[in-house]
Amino acid sequence: MMSRAIKARSSAERRVLDEAGGLRAMTWVMAIMLFLTMLAAALGLATAGAARLLDRQLVGRLTVQVVDGDPVRRDAVAARVLAALRAMPAVATATPVDRAELTRLLQPWLGSDGADPQLPVPAMIDVDLADHDGAAAARVAATVRRLSPIVRVDRHESWMSPVNDVMRSLTFLALALVLLMASATAAVVVLAARAGLQTHHATIAVMHMLGSTDLQVARLFQRRIALDATIGGVGGGVTALLVIAFIGIRLHGLGSELLGGVTLGGVDWVVLALLPVAFVVLATLAARVTIVRALRHIL
Amino acid sequence: MAKRRYGHWHGHQAGESGRNHVMANIVQFENVGLRYGTGPDAGPETLADLSFTLRSGAFYFLTGASGAGKTSLLKLLYLAQRPTRGVIRLFGEDAVVLSRDRLPGFRRRIGVVFQDFRLVPHLSTWDNIALPLRVAGMPEVDIEQPVREMLAWVGLGDRADARPATLSGGEQQRVAIARAVIARPEILVADEPTGNVDPDMAERLLHLFESLNKLGTTVVVATHDFHLLGRIPGAQMMRLDRGRLLDPTGSLRYPPTRPE
């Protein structure tokens, strides 16, 4: 009974503003804005996630080089370093890089000369830390350096920091895009509300004379814009989610270790799903504020 | 009070008389002037030195030549305009300094029949008449009966679904009147309500106003039609000439007479 009364009231209110059925321009604008916003947000969330993953992976990886022209001394120091590393609780694995593998890596630059055993190629040890944090990596690096002056430690974190910087820049760019889109959406709503006021000027004047409050008039526009935003939001949002899921599947299929990190977690999907709701709320509030402010100038 | 104002319309024409029950001042103008525009754009005073009172439950005709200021005076009455000087007391309160937030409450106590009807073009007859009740927040379930009765009262029971564009001038006029009175206003202000209808319909509409007046509503009708003035026993007349009431004392004359 109550819902029928509310439905009847809602239907009566809809008639006051001469709401035509079907989709309006505002619905399409909201759908497009939300589609683009969700793509930007997905990019931001994915790059932020990838940057975090890269951080976690790289901060726990070191390469130890033993550099000496004397192969015997080099190998002796390398063995000592390897033993020391394996004895450290902070180290999960310490793996010497195979000589054949090094030769293969050098081949593009040195050709078959890279296989010469007299070539002073450093002995290398790949280290994975148990705890992926910067402090542990720094402690292990310092300990290993103290073992011999011919030991060098490269933290992978520093190699990949430019990549990480790019990812963080992409994240901030995406955030800026989302904010820009939200502002543009609010601006579109403000324009639409003002246009609506112009269009329905005569009706609003009559309603005022009949004793309508500003909030009653604003509610009519608010409800209408919220409806447009909801329809547009659902359309644009669902399309965006499908596109994002498709791109995610394609990236996953590439098998790239770097791009494989560009994925969305459960929280990211929830954030994306909440964006349409946020846009509807934003549009509704923008409409309400615009209408109420405009009506204040009318007696 | 709300019950009385939004009560159903049974027996409107059964001779109920509320006209003389309460005769307090419902409207009071003191040295009121109105000038449109401000600064260098300000025009001459459209209304000047208006001082008069309207008694609650009385019936008034407002007459005067075109441009005399009738519509401007009505606008002051139904709070569409604030005066540039003077004091207007409405329902015992100073309407000139009334805050904007309080205007809707006052306007709901005033019914207005506009000269150009101002029906909402995309709403049906039913919805146009129901609008004041919806604005007042009346539940939908309670709206049906008063609207149905009002439609019957103005003889438009069979045009409930018609849009204003499909109604004749007289029918639109009756919808406008029904809309103005459905919420049982304390004051009814009508601007040339018979201007678009034939004499028979004019008399019928006037009879509607009289019925409402008998229920206690103060009625102010602006009209050019001097034939109507004698049709309401006990009605009083205000004559405007170039923005001033002709009688310098501001008192109202009865019986109405045709101006020179």
Automatic annotation (TrEMBL), chain A:
InterPro entries: FtsX. GO terms for cellular component: cell division site; membrane. PANTHER family: CELL DIVISION PROTEIN FTSX (PTHR47755). The keyword Transmembrane helix applies. This is Cell division transport system permease protein. It comes from the Bacteria. Keywords: Cell cycle, Cell division, Membrane, Transmembrane, Transmembrane helix. The chain crosses the membrane at residues 170-193, 225-249, 269-291.
Automatic annotation (TrEMBL), chain B:
GO terms for molecular function: ATP binding; ATP hydrolysis activity; transmembrane transporter activity. Pfam families: ABC_tran. Its main location: membrane. Keywords: ATP-binding, Cell cycle, Cell division, Cell membrane, Membrane, Nucleotide-binding, Transport. GO terms for cellular component: plasma membrane. It is a peripheral membrane protein. SMART domains: AAA (SM00382). The keyword Nucleus does not apply. CDD domains: ABC_MJ0796_LolCDE_FtsE. Signal peptide: none annotated. It is found in: Cell inner membrane; Cell membrane. GO terms for biological process: cell division. Residues 27-258 form the ABC transporter domain. Belongs to the ABC transporter superfamily. Part of the ABC transporter FtsEX involved in cellular division. Important for assembly or stability of the septal ring. Homodimer. Forms a membrane-associated complex with FtsX. This is Cell division ATP-binding protein FtsE. The lineage of its organism: Bacteria, Pseudomonadati, Pseudomonadota, Alphaproteobacteria, Sphingomonadales. The gene is ftsE.
